[in-house]
Amino acid sequence: MPASVRSDLEHIFRAAYPKVVGVAARVLGSRDEAEDVAQETFLAFGRTSIPAGEALGWLCVAAAHTALNHRRSGRRRATREEAASVPAGVAPDVAETVVARDEHQRVRAALSRLPRKQAVALVLRHSGLSYAEVAAALDLSPASVGTTVRRAESALREELNRDASSR
Amino acid sequence: MRHPGDGLLRRLLDEPDGVADNDRSHIDDCPACLSRLSEVSRDAADIENALRFDVNVDTDDAWSRLLAATAGEAPRPVRQRRHLKRTPVVAVVGVLALLGGASAAAAGNWFQIFRTEQVTPITIPQADLVRLPELEEFGTMRVESRPAIHDVDDARAAREATGLASPRVTDLPAGVTGQPRFLVGDRVVGVFTFDRAKAEKALGRPVPEPPAGLATTEFRLTAGPGLAAVWPGNSGAPALLVGRVVAPKGFSNGIPFETARDYLLALPGLPQSLSSQLKAFTNEGGTLPLIVNEGSETSFTTGVGKAPATVLSTEGGAVSIVFWVQDGFINAVGGSLSTDEVLRVAGGIRWAAQ
């Protein structure tokens, strides 16, 4: 490994990689794209001197931003994997699969339209970060994390309802 | 006891130990709070279900890929190259608005580096407009004073609240009738400080070493006060708006503008074409960047009186607005009007000081 890359990268990578992929996957709805985002995020992280104790929060926030940037840019790949991105358990019927996939991407599109801080807080919380971790990662007070997450959930529901009523 | 807010109800679902005992007792005994809690819980569950995307990863394989990537001379995207993914355009534009025009700076602890003397549109493709990290993600923006925009009774009250002259329009465009309502806003003061760690977090990659002193330099932007007369339209959008605001001024207490500008423009992800445009207009100093959405708005320059003016209109011309800067004010006339109509109104305004 190049000398410019931090020495504790592998340890942090192995501990945090699934979580970081999970954050990006919630935004993108695609495993391959989420892994690409996670790789980019760790590449960047490897050249920083962020303290190890703050690594998980930094990585999750960076992955969420990067994934949202992908999403907002509209530069998403239409891959065969999207066809397989319907959550497990959905009926194999083709029509139902198409509907479920459409719904799946509609949620991600609505998420990307939320204010950035709300979207990131929502994704971090639903990826399992504690209120204290979300607060530290986003420079919020722990007390305001609940408010931000609640507003994000309410706004996302409104986005989805508005989207549904216009279809 | 006051009912707890929705944020506290939300936390009660996830981390009940983080909620104070007296709040929990209140919620347990309060039908209104229990009803709200039920709604919050339903939304949380629905969103959790909507966002769920279970992924099984092969961490060993992923580590091998990362190793291969770090072994290269330059970091490469893992699967395919996606150029210009991140464009901190708004941040850069915002900071440049704070920094612009430093060549005319005067010495002093807070030296003025920016005085708006003309308005310049910058055309940015829509794709770049929608993937912009926000300014606060590149540093700290501390708002010391907010505009607190509010209605006042009439033109005299607007003048008294702001110390500005109010507009009189005698030749209203066809379809615009009645008396306007008046809005006023206070002076806005914001202080921006660049934060390298935040910028790296927003961009998802390391940024070049900032110039010495950038981290400790505060850029202070002031704008306002302002006032506007607004004639309502049938659709709810203003049929006509005529207003003015004391033009933004920027101050720095630290490093020279050129140094900071060149650094910000070099941040990864900024399209070269935009970078060139920004450099060109900021070299002259004293311009206020107006971002034009290339996909849905058109712009051209003309004059209002002796002042250069910029006219924007939406595609199809449904809404038009003209800006011009004169005597230290940014003036604007806009509404559900054609560009000819807003220019005719702009040319006929009389500004009444009393």
UniProtKB/TrEMBL annotation, chain A:
GO MF, any single term: DNA binding
Signal sequence, start to end: none
Domain RNA polymerase sigma factor 70 region 4 type: start-end pairs: 105-156
Stretches of the chain forming a coiled coil according to its record: none
Keyword Transcription applies: yes
Keyword presence, ATP-binding: no
Record keywords: Sigma factor, Transcription, Transcription regulation
BP term (GO), one: DNA-templated transcription initiation
Domain (RNA polymerase sigma-70 region) ranges: 13-77
SUPFAM superfamilies assigned: Sigma2 domain of RNA polymerase sigma factors (SSF88946), Sigma3 and sigma4 domains of RNA polymerase sigma factors (SSF88659)
Gene3D superfamilies found in the cross-reference section: 1.10.1740.10, Winged helix-like DNA-binding domain superfamily/Winged helix DNA-binding domain (1.10.10.10)
Family: Belongs to the sigma-70 factor family. ECF subfamily.
Protein name, per record: RNA polymerase sigma-70 factor (ECF subfamily)
UniProtKB/TrEMBL annotation, chain B:
Residue stretches spanning the membrane: 89-111
Keyword tags: Membrane, Transmembrane, Transmembrane helix
Record protein name field: Anti-sigma factor RsiW
Organism of origin: Actinoplanes xinjiangensis
